[in-house]
Amino acid sequence: MAAGISPPAIILGLLFILSLFSTSVSSAEAEENLLAFRSSLEDPTNALSGWSPAAGHVCNWTGVTCDPSSGRVASLVLRSLNLSGEISPSLCRLAGLSELNLAGNFFNQSIPLHLAQCTSLQALNLSNNLLWGTLPDQISQLRSLTSLDLSGNKLEGALPIGLGALDRLRVLNLGGNMFTGALHISIFGNLSDLVHIDISQNPSFSSELPPQLGNLKKLRKILMQSAGLRGGIPQSFVGLGELEILDLSRNNLSGKIPVGFGLRLAKLVYLDLSQNRLSGSFPGEICSGMVLAELNLHTNSFSGELPESMGSCSNLERLQLQNGGFSGEFPSGLWALSKMTVIRAENNRFSGEIPDYIRTASRLELVQIDNNSFSGRIPPGFGMISSLYRFSASMNGFYGELPENFCDSPAMSIISFSHNSLTGSIPSPRRCRKLVSLSLAGNHFTGEIPNSLTQLPVLTYLDLSDNNLSGEIPQGLQNLKLALLNVSFNQLSGEVPLPLISGLPASFLQGNPGLCGPGLANPCGAEEAQKRRNLSLTYALISIAFAGGVILVAAALYVKNQSLRRKARRAHSASWKSVLYYPLRITEDDLLMRFNESNCVGRGAFGEVYAIRLPGGEVVAAKKLIYPTNLSMRSLKTEIKTLAKARHKNLTKLLGFCYSEGIVVLIYESLPKGSLGDAISRSGFSMEWPTRLRIAMGAAQALSYLHEHYVPTLLHRNVKSRNVLLDVDYEPKLTDFGLDRVLGESSYGSSMASELGSRCYLAPECGYSKKATEKMDVYSFGVLLLELVTGRPAEQPEPRDSLDVVRWVRRRINTDNRFQILDQKISGTALPSISGALDLALRCTAVSPEKRPTMLEVLRSLQSLESAADPPPVLSADTSYSGNP
Ligand SMILES: *[C@@H]1O[C@H](CO)[C@@H](O)[C@H](O)[C@H]1NC(C)=O
Ligand SMILES: *[C@@H]1O[C@H](CO)[C@@H](O)[C@H](O)[C@H]1NC(C)=O
Ligand SMILES: *[C@@H]1O[C@H](CO)[C@@H](O)[C@H](O)[C@H]1NC(C)=O
Ligand SMILES: *[C@@H]1O[C@H](CO)[C@@H](O)[C@H](O)[C@H]1NC(C)=O
Ligand SMILES: *[C@@H]1O[C@H](CO)[C@@H](O)[C@H](O)[C@H]1NC(C)=O
Ligand SMILES: *[C@@H]1O[C@H](CO)[C@@H](O)[C@H](O)[C@H]1NC(C)=O
Ligand SMILES: *[C@@H]1O[C@H](CO)[C@@H](O)[C@H](O)[C@H]1NC(C)=O
Ligand SMILES: *[C@@H]1O[C@H](CO)[C@@H](O)[C@H](O)[C@H]1NC(C)=O
Ligand SMILES: *[C@@H]1O[C@H](CO)[C@@H](O)[C@H](O)[C@H]1NC(C)=O
């Protein structure tokens, strides 16, 4: 039996058993070392809770990978697990560990010297931690390293010479630290395998570029932006034939770009030399390899021309040359590159014309060539690029007429041709419904301001100043939400629409002797003035008649009231009927008897509101509506019932209603603290931000309930701070919702139109859109939020033409420090949250409805602001457990 087994087989068998034994020994060791490592960690999320002998073999532990042939731990990858604590030396006892990645944790220590003992490491990644101190020279002992990533830490001091000994390195990333000193020549001499080097965002470096870098022929990526570099770009860089990405931007490099640079770097895809002090002219060919996609040379001190051959860089997508110091003919081929999306060349001295074949650059999105010496006519070809959203070419020498299609790109949002020599009339914009800004100032345009400008729904800046335009200012401009209108120094005439004189837009009208209107030098011609005098006489007569009328009406009311009382006393109010949804101890008589001046608490577009104390002591609010007699009682009841069934903690309850011919009285619950509008209008309004936020959230919840959850969907249609009532603990309740359903659209519309005090809550599209939408409520809510954020009432009662809150904010948002918009009384406390609410309010009040969020989205945003506004929990005496349970 045993004799049947040959000696070699026995030896093989023994070897097998031995090897099993040694694996298990190494496994036990590995387990011990890993557990030692873990014991020095803080692991707040229990990411490594599975690390225990009970969980099986170490090779199965989170983040651990073993070499399949040796069974030894080969890599430990514990990325972004919120780990902190100490990186313990036990790691380096894991013989065979070739990769260690602890990136994205919170290790707050200097780089441990003992890591130098991990001599088998090939990849070390400690990026994005809180490592501090210097990079120790002992790093040189990690001779096997091919990849070293220490980016995004707080390392400082000079780079150690020992780094130069890591001659197998392919990837070196030291970006985003605070290293100082110079890039030492001897470091880079030996790193001949280097493929990627990143030392960007180390502004404390102060170094020249070592010419030796040019010997590292395998380099494909050099990222050295913001790295304190000065001096010139070494000629040796021309030899980096594999280079794909070179970013040397935001340094202090000077001198010329090396000769042959473009020619020899045939694989270059991305070249960024912007924001330096490079000078001289551009050296010949730039994209001999035809792969260059992004060329960024802006903000330098170049001189001279760009090579005409640049026009054949057929893969170029983005070109930025602004503030570059260039002059001479702009390479005309650049206008025809089919992949080009961005051309920025402003503030140079380029000359040349825009060729009509610019239409072949069909992906162009942005062209900025302001402040150059371009000339010629604007070709129709540019109007055919449908992706173009900004074209600005102010301060050049363009002449001739603007092509009819100058604004045909459906994406177009900013056009500027100001300060050129364009002539002819301004063509009617046809398709550019997204145009926000149109600037044609300082040309020689003649003819009238095209009326079709008033059809551009989001036009906000319109500068036509300093031309030779004539005719009147189109009436329709007053319906746009313009922030700026400048028509000064033209030949315009006629009466200026009143809203353009008072309030927003900021109108600039001077230098048009023919324009007239109140407050202008010319208050309209002598004839006009006579007419006005007559008119004001009429006004005076009307007001006297009105005053007389009021007295009459009052008298009539008094008589009626008296007779009502008498009738009531005799219980003869038979024509009144009521429907109550809550058990109120109230009779029609009770109500009618209390409709008098002293109980009247408000007057709105739809009628008076009375606060009525019932015999039982409770107070209700009764809203008296004039009810169009052409509507049927039946539909009235149905609609009111629909409103009454809308139940939400942030909607006032409709308790019931009573009606007689032509009049409906809606009975609502009454709230003790009055309306938010009243509160804001009071001087010294100083509600805390968390309270304001709670009010906003309540209102948003109510609206989102009406829009999304209630069937049938209801619109509020009259959101304003005066319709936000406050409960004892400042819980808000919206009132006055859905009255359009009760009154019918036409009657509702005319009542709303008569309401002057809250115009600014109306979305701009209310003017022309037939159908009411949820987005109109969102707009009104945005205005309410602006009130909360600024602490300003939506409209100031006096003076009449002062700015409403929307205009007030819009005027400031682009010019002032935005913090001055926020209510100074609270902005010290929860700035990010308040500022976030301002952003949200701006989105809600976007001019175009489709840009506004839905109420549900609004609500989510507010909730996230709320968690941001929460003060950290404080353990106060009430909540601690030292006292009685
Ligand atoms: C590895 O872990 C998985 C579950 O996490 C378990 O199903 C498997 O049995 C384990 N394997 C070993 C060898 O421990
Ligand atoms: C990890 O830390 C980040 C930043 O402190 C924190 O936002 C995140 O919630 C933490 N993750 C876990 C799971 O605790
Ligand atoms: C890092 O640790 C030091 C003390 O060792 C501490 O002062 C510092 O605040 C910590 N840094 C961070 C970001 O936690
Ligand atoms: C280091 O780890 C981070 C996070 O996983 C990763 O983004 C980065 O690419 C790694 N660095 C290297 C050089 O692989
Ligand atoms: C570079 O390599 C040479 C020869 O291999 C060696 O003598 C020199 O010490 C190395 N430089 C550094 C900084 O390690
Ligand atoms: C750039 O270099 C010039 C001269 O070498 C120096 O005057 C200037 O201060 C430097 N600028 C920066 C930002 O380092
Ligand atoms: C126009 O560009 C020149 C440089 O070519 C610059 O010096 C000047 O300040 C620019 N003008 C304006 C108004 O930006
Ligand atoms: C309006 O146009 C005139 C003339 O071009 C100019 O002087 C003035 O500064 C412009 N005003 C604004 C606010 O743009
Ligand atoms: C404006 O037009 C008038 C005649 O309509 C002409 O006399 C004047 O020269 C023009 N001004 C400019 C600046 O084109």
UniProtKB/TrEMBL annotation:
Sorted UniProt keywords: ATP-binding, Glycoprotein, Leucine-rich repeat, Membrane, Nucleotide-binding, Receptor, Repeat, Signal, Transferase, Transmembrane, Transmembrane helix
Protein residues bound to ATP: 624
GO molecular function, one term: protein kinase activity
Broad class of the protein's primary localization: membrane
Residue ranges annotated for the Protein kinase domain, each copy included: 595-865
SUPFAM superfamilies: L domain-like (SSF52058), Protein kinase-like (PK-like) (SSF56112)
Recorded GO CC terms: plasma membrane
Pfam families: LRR_1 (PF00560), LRR_8 (PF13855), LRRNT_2 (PF08263), Pkinase (PF00069)
Membrane topology, record value: Single-pass membrane protein; Single-pass type I membrane protein
Record field: transmembrane: 537-559
Subcellular location: Cell membrane; Membrane
Signal peptide positions on this chain: 1-30
Record-given protein name: Protein kinase domain-containing protein
